[in-house]
Each structure stands twice: as structure tokens, then as C-alpha cells.
């Protein structure tokens, strides 16, 4: 099962508004055409978008996102990040004909169970999994114990060694990693860090996907970016593999 993992689109208020001289709409459009091209070469079963879809949470940016995603005609999961505004996302969602979005944010195939977990704390850049969300996550993992489990979320759980984002990562990452270890979760995918990174620990892969908008310079404490952008293709086969597509 091949899954495309997009993260941190940061679509701005208007197409003309740039972030650090980057047009986030141009990047998303480019990535989108690449996904179309890749889809003509191989089967993509699912697209997961792990948050910061919008930079300022405008309804228009969500309308743009949902329209494009629907036109792919591939099931997709949209997780929200610290820049997103849930009520505005929901407004756009109720307006659009949304046939392909998986609103439960859960997906099963024969061997894999994909779950997402909400890490957003309203008004804060850091992430935290609430007690209720934690319990819900554990319940879902146990219920699907016959499958390989993959979890997607917005905030990164392991420092990427870039202080500007490690200062606002997932606050209760230790508890999450212990839970994943306990139930032999195979994969955790996230965004937020704008610093692509993959770790392998025992049988678990933890992966921060490259942002669609821009990357932070590795190790930076201040606002310094690289305009490179991209996404990952994760092949959830017995030998899990990750292809990073960078532009
Ligand atoms: Fe974020």
C-alpha cells in the first residue's frame, strides 16, 4: 500500500501573499501536479495531510485545499496543525462536495491500520495529546491489534535538532513513544518540524515529512529557511520504505 504524506502547506490568506518570498500556493500546485504524475505511474491508495494546511486558518484557503484534494479522486485524511482553525476548516468542509475525504481519519487495508491523533492545543504552537485522545488512541490500537499500526499526527515526537521547532514539539512525546513501544506500533508520521528526518528504533519507523511550504535550515535557532519543498511516499509493505520527493 503506497501512501503519499503531505504536510505543512501553510496556504496564505491570498495567492499573492508570500511567506519568506515563497508562494505556498505555487508549491502546493506543483506538488499536486507531481502527485497526479506519480499516480499515472503507480497506485496511490491514500493521501495523508498532517496539518498546517492553512497559515492563518482562512476559510478560503481550506476551500482551495479541499477542491484540489477532491479532484485527485483518491481517499485522503486531513489532520489539523497549530496554524489551522478547526471551525473554519469545518465551514469549508460542509460547503464543498467532499466525496474522498475520510472524516474519521482512520483507514484500513488488509494488513495495515492507519490512525491519526490530534496534537493541537488551541492558541499554542507546541503539541499535546489530551488524556481523552490518548485513551481513544490506545483503544483503537487494541481494537485493531491484528493489523500493523501506523499513526499520523501534526507535531513531531523526537527532536530534529533544529531549536526553532524543537522548542514547540509534542510535549508528551515520551508517553506516546512508550505506548507505541508497548503495542509494537510500526510507524509514526508527522510534520510541523519543516525538517525532514527518519528514525528506526526496534521495529518502529518514526518519520517527519518534508514540508510543502519550505524547510528550516538544519540547526537554526532563528528564522532561516531553505526554499526546497516536497513530500514523502511511504510504501507500507513488509519492508517499509520511504521515498522523499524534493523539488
Ligand atoms: Fe506546525
Automatic annotation (TrEMBL):
Gene3D superfamilies: 3.60.21.10. InterPro entries: Calcineurin-like_PHP, CNP_phosphodiesterase-III, Metallo-depent_PP-like. The keyword Cell membrane does not apply. Keywords: Hydrolase, Iron, Metal-binding. Pfam families: Metallophos. Residues 1-196 form the Calcineurin-like phosphoesterase domain. Belongs to the cyclic nucleotide phosphodiesterase class-III family. This is Metallophosphoesterase. It comes from Xenorhabdus lircayensis.
